[in-house]
Amino acid sequence: VQLQASGGGLVQAGDSLRLSCAASGRTFSIISITGWGWFRQAPGKERQFVAGINWSGGSTYYADSVKGRFTISRDNAKYTVYLQMSSLKPEDTAVYYCAASNEKPYMRTRVLQAYGYWGQGTQVTVSS
User: Fold this and answer.
1) Contact 48, 39 (CB under 8 A)
2) How far apart are CA 49 and CA 97, in angstroms?
3) Residue 96: Cβ within 10 Å count
4) Confidence of residue 76 (pLDDT cuts 50, 70, 90)
5) What is the pLDDT of residue 28?
6) Over the stretch 4-30, which tens digit does the pLDDT of each residue have?
7) What is the pLDDT of residue 70?
8) Residue 57 burial by CB count (10 A; 0-12/13-18/19+): exposed, middle or buried?
9) CA end-to-end span of the chain, whole Å?
10) pLDDT tens for residues 56-71?
11) What is the tens place of the pLDDT at every residue in 84-116?
């Protein structure tokens, strides 16, 4: 499974941005995905969980730092997941990575090791 992330850019504090991540590859591999996640990594810091979504039921999970500002959603027909980011802050600046998990059930939503597929990352820069 290949994941292609897009939508990053340079914005000002308070602006909004939407990231997309599309899956491609063998169908039997794609349909094995049970959950999606977005992570981010700022310079000199570890990669951190941002948001996750259950592929079938649509349950969502968020880091406390983005709760109420970010929304993760999915389009099952397009095998695509989105991260709508609002009220962006300079501390949101990071490379954002999408990831997919085929663990059953999808429970370790905040754990990097639960995700076997990763996108290439897209830079989000928020200026003050």
Assistant:
1) yes
2) 10
3) 24
4) confident
5) 81
6) 999 999 999 999 999 999 999 888 888
7) 98
8) exposed
9) 37
10) 888 999 999 999 999 9
11) 999 999 999 999 999 999 999 999 999 999 999
Instruction: Copy the structure tokens of residue 75.
Output: 């389009």
The identity of residue 3, as a single letter, is L
Q: In residues, how long is the chain?
A: 128
- Indicate the residue type of 77: A
In which element (H, E) is residue 81 found?
A: strand 80-85
Q: Are 16 and 23 in contact (CB under 8 A)?
A: no
Residue pair 55/76 in contact by the 8 Å Cβ criterion: yes
The residue among 122, 127, 98 whose CA lies nearest residue 6 is 122
Specify the residue for token string 């590859």.
Answer: 25
Strand partners, 100: 36, 117
Preceding amide of 105 cis, omega within 30: yes
The one-letter amino acid at 23: A
Distance CA 59, CA 54 (A): 5
8 A C-beta contact, residue 41 and residue 95: yes
